[in-house]
Design brief:
alpha/beta, 5 strands, 40% helix, globular
Length: 230
């Protein structure tokens, strides 16, 4: 359940309780719970940012959303095997790729911001997200804004320097973005430092505290993204 009236402290409490509940878990359980926690925190931060803008809360909807991408007929025409062309045309409902947004932010029922939520984001994950963002812009929502929200930085650079107002990011990440139409992409990190696979934050000895100032920084970034929709 989302936090009804989130503030900086309640988001810190949500993070702390969520991570500490993983101390005794193992394997795949942790991966799923970390992802779900990142989604809940991102939603709480979006709701707080919207409220700080002074906007009416009933105008805002934040939810998981799936959008279908259908096969391109121009591609079908180029296929050399007639049996494959025939099958695609007879069974178009099977030839679909579904794009899932961990959190879709709607203002006045208009989808304005897609948020991908990760425990951490490495370059492989980032490339997949970037391709899905490109497809979304090209085929579905040409004005949509995008954000990757990560608990820890896995992209290199200084994305884990949360309070730095002049983050440079990482060279490889900017290079990939430069070859895509997603100039509006924002990368937001919650925790200081970088993801270390040998020091997992869901273990007692490597648990990272979340300072309230980090929450405030993240709220400010979402506030900037949503300001034009107030």
């Amino acid at each position: 359940m989302p936090l009804s009236y989130p503030d900086d402290k309640s988001i810190v409490d949500l993070y702390t309780a969520g991570i500490q509940a993983m101390f005794e878990l193992t394997g795949g359980q942790i991966r799923g719970k970390k992802g779900a926690l990142a989604e809940r925190i991102a939603e709480a931060i979006v709701r707080l940012a919207w409220r700080e803008l002074g906007a009416e809360e009933d105008r805002l909807t934040v939810k998981k959303q799936t959008q279908p991408i259908y096969i391109d007929e121009n591609y079908v025409k180029t296929l050399k095997h007639g049996y494959l062309r025939h099958d695609i045309r007879q069974n178009k409902d099977k030839y679909i790729y579904e794009i899932e947004f961990d959190r879709a932010v709607e203002i006045d029922n208009r989808f304005v911001l897609g948020v991908e939520c990760k425990a951490f984001t490495d370059q492989t994950m980032f490339k997949r997200s970037l391709k899905e963002f490109e497809l979304t812009l090209h085929l579905l929502f040409p004005e949509l804004l995008f954000c990757i929200f990560q608990l820890e930085n896995g992209l290199g650079g200084d994305y884990g320097d949360v309070s730095n107002p002049k983050q440079l990011g990482s060279g490889s990440t900017h290079t990939l973005i430069s070859h895509s139409p997603t100039e509006s992409l924002e990368i937001i990190t919650l925790l200081d430092g970088n993801h270390n696979p040998n020091k997992k934050i869901h273990t007692r000895e490597h648990f990272k505290n979340l300072p309230t100032k980090n929450v405030a920084v993240c709220v400010s970034k979402f506030r900037d993204m949503l300001a034009d929709f107030v």
